[in-house]
Amino acid sequence: MFRNLDGGKEMKSKKELRNELMNYPFIKPDPKLQRNLMQFGLDVGDGWLGIIKEAWDKINELENLPENFEIFQVKEKFGELTIYPEEYNEDINDILLKARQKSIHTCEICGSEFAQKENINGWFKTICEKCKGEKK
Ligand SMILES: [Zn+2]
After folding, report:
1. Is residue 128 part of a domain?
2. Ligand 1 geometric centre to CA of 114 (Å)
């Protein structure tokens, strides 16, 4: 029953997941870019959305989450998933550190867990062999 439904469906679900991840209570995009930079969305490839989902769910379950907690920015930096919270505590640090560690071997494009950080013309990108081949 797999047929060719997959392509379009897969893409749509990534888009849906992206929207879903922007709807957690601690994501409050500020159009004026004063409180945070979430107006730019999740500035990473689709391959990392699963890692972010995992992190968001864990943060959501924290009992010691600071009141009015917000995520400040989500981006790719030196080939790593970088999430800046507005406020830290030990549990938040731990969750975000694990997400970053996972991103270092997860392809930012397809989500394969057999990726590694590559230096592509001076830009670091965490990418798997397959996606690297397709980029050439
Ligand atoms: Zn890949």
Report:
1. no
2. 8
